[in-house]
Design brief:
heterodimer, A: about 240 residues, alpha/beta, Rossmann fold, six-stranded mixed beta sheet, four-stranded antiparallel beta sheet, 9 helices, B: about 450 residues, mainly alpha, abc type-2 transporter like fold, 2 domains, two-stranded antiparallel ribbon, 19 helices, about 5% strand
């Protein structure tokens, strides 16, 4: 079954065309990466998938449900991690995870998963306001994954983190989604991260998808050693 | 699920010490301090006057060469003050120096020819000089010694002139013994007490306006902080209806607002009690009306009025909280929310100040309608004013309109609590704020 089906999606803000007629599909259980520079339209696309924004035109379905007409049903099966996601500073990490598990109608087992995924130890009982950026991101990734969504939408999951935190989160994401068969769509401008996590990627630039395929196929097609080289070559071709 | 979100709001709000202090502790402190200061100022004023008169010391500067006028002034001064000294051929500079050195409290300059004028029944211009150290109530009271001395001297010399003509000074000086009073809500008050009552109202207006402004800020922040701390997008992607999100916000704010209202009412009781006793302390005893003023203020403390003030405050706080949530939704951060609130504060401050200086009954129908129109922001002030002026019909009108206003705000907020609209509006505000040159930066944020 298709987890995501995007057809001719456009999103315009005033005079700015953020997404310019993109189409792609993601299979259930797949990890799909959207790769592109800042302002390419990645976050806007993910926000539309997360029912935060509505498309200006085009059609988007999540597990066969229309993102415009069936938002409430979609929100029950997705989990969204924005690029800059904060948590309530006067809640402890534990209280935050507990709140989120209850909001999704889950119990203690999910909460236990969240605690394990966050890996914050005793710090979990401190106010979130005292956390470092890395700790907050770990809490957010744990929050997004622990509820075992059918689709996890992760916008720059390791954005701004140091190597240690990034490696930890990539490992957690890869293992957890495989365990529970979670479909993931993630965005990043870190090509190595996308290459490591994604089974298939779409390169996006100026609101348009300029290449799509498995990292291996793309590297072969563009005779590149890694996705970074692919991106440079494709963007060069596109411009 | 709603209860979990409300709990989250309560925890996140009440663990912020700044919010608890400004919304709950501050009204208590402000009212109590204002009441105590007012009461203290009244009692201190009385004490200062008594002290000044008890320890009055007068220096008479005699330029009349020991004539009749000087001897009369000397006799009166001995009745007025403990210590009286006399000097010859001195002027204002000498008196100033004596007073500034703290040797005397009153200086009197009798001009040359004063006795001759007295004999010819011509007016005599006597300079009476006192000293104050500031512009406080106490200083104002202290300055009263000057008029007390000059009025006393005038009466003393007038009595001398009258008795010299074979008349009874008591009758001749005051042939009419009048007791002045004005009727206010069936109570007789001396006109002078109205100044005190006006001052009570002036100070009373400030505190609820501050509480209401605070509530507007707290509510706006509770929503704006979701934007600022980047929690809004996650919140809006959760399987929770927008209405429930709004209700949880309002619920959390209302818990705070309820406690703020209770704090306000307790503070109000403390304030009114202190003011009542303060006015009673100021009672001169003459005519006996001053105590009535104190009783009138204290009579506000009946259960019916207190319940009314409590409900009106609650409604006002609800109305501004709803408006605050609406404004906070549109603000990308708490700073922007504060600027929106700042721009709307005139709705609280201007009618509040108008009511401070004018009676409701002095407005025509349109003016009263305008006051009622903005009453959701100033309901407790309007209610007390309407009660004191006997305009009882304005009380239910004010309450009903405040309730309706809150409902309208909640409905508008629930319609606006739509991520697409919010983000579009925020985008619009951002691009307006940053200007067209920054549109590229804004588009990158998208």
């Amino acid at each position: 079954m298709l987890a995501i089906q995007v057809s001719e999606l456009c999103k315009v803000f005033g005079e700015v065309i953020a997404v310019d007629g993109i189409s792609f599909e993601v299979e259930e259980g797949e990890i799909f990466g959207l790769v592109g520079p800042n302002g390419a339209g990645k976050s806007t696309t993910l926000r539309i998938l997360a029912t935060i924004l509505k498309p200006t035109s085009g059609h988007v379905e999540i597990f066969g449900m229309d993102v415009v007409k069936e938002t409430n049903s979609i929100r029950k099966i997705i989990s969204y991690l924005p690029e800059e996601a904060g948590a309530y500073k006067y809640l402890t990490g534990y209280e935050y995870l507990k709140l989120m598990s209850k909001v999704y109608g889950h119990g203690e087992d999910v909460l236990e998963d969240g605690i394990r995924l966050a890996g914050l130890g005793e710090a979990l009982h401190r106010y979130v306001g005292t956390y470092s950026k890395g700790m907050k991101r770990r809490l957010q990734v744990a929050r997004a994954l622990m509820v075992r969504p059918k689709l996890a939408i992760l916008d720059e999951p390791t954005s701004g983190l140091d190597v240690a935190h990034s490696v930890y989160l990539r490992k957690v994401i890869k293992e957890y989604v495989k365990t529970y068969g979670i479909t993931v769509i993630l965005s990043s401008h870190n090509m190595l991260e996308v290459e490591f996590l994604s089974e298939r990627v779409a390169l996006i630039n100026k609101g348009r998808i300029i290449a799509e395929g498995t990292p291996k196929d793309l590297m072969k097609e563009y005779e590149a050693r890694n996705l970074e080289e692919v991106f440079v070559k494709v963007v060069g071709h596109a411009e | 699920m709603l209860s979990e979100l409300v709990k989250k709001e309560i925890k996140n709000t009440f663990r912020d010490k700044k919010v608890v202090f400004t919304a709950i502790i501050m009204p208590l402190i402000i009212f109590a301090i204002m009441g105590l200061i007012y009461s203290f100022a009244f009692s201190k004023t009385g004490e200062v006057v008594e002290e000044q008169i008890r320890n009055a010391s007068v220096f008479i500067c005699d330029n009349d060469n020991g004539g009749l006028f000087t001897s009369l002034a000397l006799n009166y001064s001995h009745l007025f003050a403990k210590k009286v000294e006399i000097g010859k051929g001195c002027g204002e500079d000498y008196i100033k120096k004596l007073l500034l050195d703290g040797n005397y409290t009153v200086g009197v300059i009798i001009p040359a020819g004063a006795s001759q004028n007295l004999t010819l029944l011509k007016p005599v211009e006597v300079k009476v000089i006192g000293k104050v150290s500031g512009f406080s109530f106490s200083s104002m009271a202290a300055s009263g010694i000057v008029s007390a001395y000059s009025q006393g001297l005038n009466s003393f010399i007038r009595a001398y002139i009258i008795s010299n003509h074979g008349l009874d000074p008591k009758i001749a000086i005051s042939p009419v013994k009048s007791v002045e009073a004005v009727i206010f809500r069936e109570a007789l008050l001396p006109p002078s007490s109205l100044a005190s009552l006006s001052m009570v109202f002036f100070m009373f207006m400030l505190a609820p306006l501050m509480v209401i402004s605070t509530s507007l800020g707290v509510a706006a922040s509770s929503m704006a902080v979701e934007n600022e701390e980047k929690t809004l997008e996650v919140l809006l992607s959760l399987p929770v209806s927008r209405f429930k999100i709004l209700l949880s916000k309002l619920g959390g704010t209302m818990v705070l607002v309820t406690l703020s209202t209770i704090s306000f009412v307790i503070g109000f009781i403390i304030y009114i009690s202190a003011i009542g006793s303060g006015i009673s302390m100021m009672a001169t005893g003459e005519g006996g009306f001053m105590d009535v003023g104190g009783d009138l203020i204290t009579s506000v403390l009946n259960l019916q009025v207190l319940a009314g003030v409590g409900i009106a405050t609650f409604l006002s706080l609800t109305a501004v909280a709803s408006l605050g949530i609406l404004l906070g939704s549109l603000a990308p951060d708490t700073r922007t929310a504060s600027s929106y609130i700042g721009q709307l504060s005139f709705l609280i401050i201007i009618p509040g100040f108008i009511l401070t200086f004018l009676d409701l009954s002095s407005f025509n129908e349109i003016g009263q309608a305008l006051m009622v129109a903005v009453s959701p922001f100033i309901a407790p002030v309007l209610l007390v004013k309407a009660y004191f002026e006997g305009l009882y019909y304005l009380i239910p009108v004010t309450m009903i309109w405040a309730l309706a206003f809150s409902l309208i705000m909640i409905l508008v907020a629930s319609k606006l609590l739509n991520s697409e609209k919010l983000l579009s509006l925020q985008y619009w505000f951002l691009t307006r704020k940053k200007g067209k040159k920054s549109k590229k930066k804004v588009s990158e944020d998208l």
